Amino acid sequence: MDDIDRRILQLLKEDGRATNAEVGTKIGLSEGAVRRRIARMRAEGTILRFTVVTLPLGPEGLVLIRCRPGKTATILEHVRQRATEVFESSGEYDLGAIIECGTMDALNRELDAIRALDGVDATLTLIRLTRWQKTPQAAPGGAAPVAPSRAAPAPPPRRPMGSKGR
Description:
The protein is α+β, with helices and mostly antiparallel strands.
């Protein structure tokens, strides 16, 4: 992977629907060159899939899972069936999983099912309140909030101090 591949990937992360010609125009390559590079990155496993990122459609939780020795692989297989994303981690917890559900009750049921798995020593769950996402118009490293879940509408904007509520 070279710097051109990285630029292609960054542009696709910002807009996964961009055509190969549009990407090529932005980085000075032909449509065919971009198409061949994307095909190679898919074949190598650098690009895993193309997907859509939405506003939260319900509660989301990051579940950290501590596994007993020798049980991680079995727990991983069970958790993968319940989660949108699973990863191994270093430190106090062995696995992390993103769980998305339509309701808080459904999320609690999923968490209970994970906690009940043989070999799960402990879990720590963090519920996502706000998502921050890098925006194309933001300065490098800048981020902008993505609207909160429809289940929890944003509070009304505050008036500056000293303004009158007329």
